[in-house]
């Protein structure tokens, strides 16, 4: 049986060119880029070039790019670093109730340390309440952190409006964007959003695990979370991962180049999946037509999501529930509850996420399998419902 992987929002298979590049750099350019000898200088040149390529992919300057281990570190670096650096301005932060755990839990932690956090509401499609944002920004608001694309439902936030509101209300308030699920899938415009900070993780755009980017706009200072060296312009101490940086830069370049074609193909596939899911009794779509095309989320109220995941797996389809960082937790989806979904819908969510290898035929097969699985599971749900 051939397995079809529908979990690209969790992690993506690296481009073949990325694997080859990383292996080559690890083998030939293993020297420490901070060393003074010629091998160190060669590694430093590769690191410099990788930074330039990453900057070009985001239309920013190389000195605004900091290499990290991924977006969990990048989000923590942005939020905690800004909070500590600018605490003299105030101790108020704004975010939403649908952020990735690496943002949400970071803000919760800061609350225990004395910061005040406002969690903005969202509507039934997961879109942030812009009026609430305007009311929430204050003189002591240090940071606003809002994701680009939601990792569960694919909701795309109106970041140009967000940036305009934030900067009109308080020009000194920093705007951080968790860009993990957007880059390479939908258009990105850091200048159009007036972003000060932007986090990425390489393994979400067919790059290597353990590498990420944090864009820090010129003039913005962050309190470093990791001390012990002057690497990354003092933002992040530790010996640089040259091979990872070079491989990630290649993945960023390829993803940026392929994004328009991928978006068009994923939109076609998404429409086919939407049509199929709507025809299956019992399924409830949680993603909307305005969502990013690579994430499709639905619920089957009354069924534990792991039952659906394993039933689909038995027929060759690999899907997931919520964020991979919290998929093993049994709690209902915080994101769906924030969108106003009831407890049953929030406790039975399934996520399908597309990648570069998917074709329309794969989607047709998934719909066929999903209909069969739901038909097999429906009597079980009905029996359980009658026992309540």
Overview in brief:
The protein has 388 residues and is of the alpha/beta class. The protein has helices at residues 16-28, 38-58, 71-85, 101-112, 130-136, 159-169, 190-193, 242-278, 305-314, 334-338, 343-346, 360-387, and strands spanning 4-5, 65-68, 92-96, 116-120, 141-145, 174-178, 197-201, 212-216, 284-285, 295-299, 317-318, 349-353.
Write the layout of secondary structure elements.
Blueprint (H helix, E strand, L loop, with lengths): L3 E2 L10 H13 L9 H21 L6 E4 L2 H15 L6 E5 L4 H12 L3 E5 L9 H7 L4 E5 L13 H11 L4 E5 L11 H4 L3 E5 L10 E5 L25 H37 L5 E2 L9 E5 L5 H10 L2 E2 L15 H5 L4 H4 L2 E5 L6 H28 L1
Parallel strand pairs: 1-11, 3-4, 3-5, 5-6, 6-7
Antiparallel strand pairs: 2-8, 7-8, 9-10, 10-12
Walk me through this protein's architecture.
This protein is α/β, with parallel strands linked by helices and 388 residues long. It folds into two domains: 4-11 and 255-387, Aspartate Aminotransferase, domain 1 (Alpha-Beta Complex); 16-254, Type I PLP-dependent aspartate aminotransferase-like (Major domain) (Aspartate Aminotransferase, domain 2). It has helices spanning 16-28, 38-58, 71-85, 101-112, 130-136, 159-169, 190-193, 242-278, 305-314, 334-338, 343-346, 360-387, and strands at residues 4-5, 65-68, 92-96, 116-120, 141-145, 174-178, 197-201, 212-216, 284-285, 295-299, 317-318, 349-353. The strands form three sheets. It has a seven-stranded mixed β-sheet with strand order 2-8-7-6-5-3-4, sandwiched between helices. A three-stranded antiparallel β-sheet has the order 9-10-12. Helix 2 (38-58) packs parallel to helix 8 (242-278), helix 3 (71-85) packs parallel to helix 4 and helix 8 packs across helix 12 (360-387). The longest helix is centred in the last third of the chain and has 37 residues, at 242-278.
């Amino acid at each position: 049986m051939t397995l079809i992987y529908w979990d690209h929002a969790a992690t993506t298979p690296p481009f073949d060119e990325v694997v080859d590049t990383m292996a080559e750099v690890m083998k030939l350019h293993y020297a420490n880029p901070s060393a003074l000898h010629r091998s160190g200088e060669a590694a430093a040149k590769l690191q410099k070039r990788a930074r330039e390529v990453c900057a070009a992919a985001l239309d920013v300057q190389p000195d605004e790019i900091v290499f990290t281990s991924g977006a969990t570190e990048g989000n923590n670096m942005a939020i905690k670093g800004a909070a500590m650096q600018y605490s003299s301005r105030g101790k108020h932060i704004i975010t939403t109730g649908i952020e990735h755990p690496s943002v949400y839990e970071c803000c919760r932690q800061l609350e225990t340390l004395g910061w005040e956090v406002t969690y903005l509401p969202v509507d039934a499609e997961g879109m942030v309440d812009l009026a609430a944002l305007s009311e929430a920004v204050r003189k002591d608001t240090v940071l606003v952190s809002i994701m680009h694309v939601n990792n569960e439902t694919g909701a795309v936030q109106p970041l140009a409006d967000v940036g305009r509101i934030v900067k009109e209300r308080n020009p000194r308030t920093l705007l951080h964007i968790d860009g993990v699920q957007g880059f390479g899938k939908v258009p990105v415009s850091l200048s159009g959003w007036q972003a000060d900070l932007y986090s990425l993780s390489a393994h979400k755009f067919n790059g290597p695990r353990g590498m990420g980017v944090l864009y820090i706009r010129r003039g913005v200072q962050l309190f470093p979370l990791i001390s012990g060296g002057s690497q990354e312009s003092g933002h992040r101490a530790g010996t640089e991962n040259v091979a990872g940086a070079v491989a990630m830069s290649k993945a960023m370049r390829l993803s940026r180049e392929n994004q328009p074609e991928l978006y068009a193909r994923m939109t076609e596939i998404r429409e086919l999946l939407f049509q199929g899911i709507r025809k299956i009794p019992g399924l409830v779509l949680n993603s909307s037509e305005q969502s990013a095309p690579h994430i499709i989320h639905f619920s089957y109220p009354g069924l534990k999501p792991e039952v659906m995941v394993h039933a689909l797996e038995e027929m060759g389809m690999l899907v997931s529930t919520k964020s991979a960082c919290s998929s093993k937790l049994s709690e209902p989806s915080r994101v769906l509850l924030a969108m106003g979904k009831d407890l049953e819908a929030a406790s039975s969510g399934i996520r399908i996420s597309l990648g570069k290898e998917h074709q329309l035929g794969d989607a047709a097969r998934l719909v066929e399998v999903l209909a069969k699985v739901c038909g097999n599971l429906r009597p079980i749900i009905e029996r359980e419902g009658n026992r309540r």
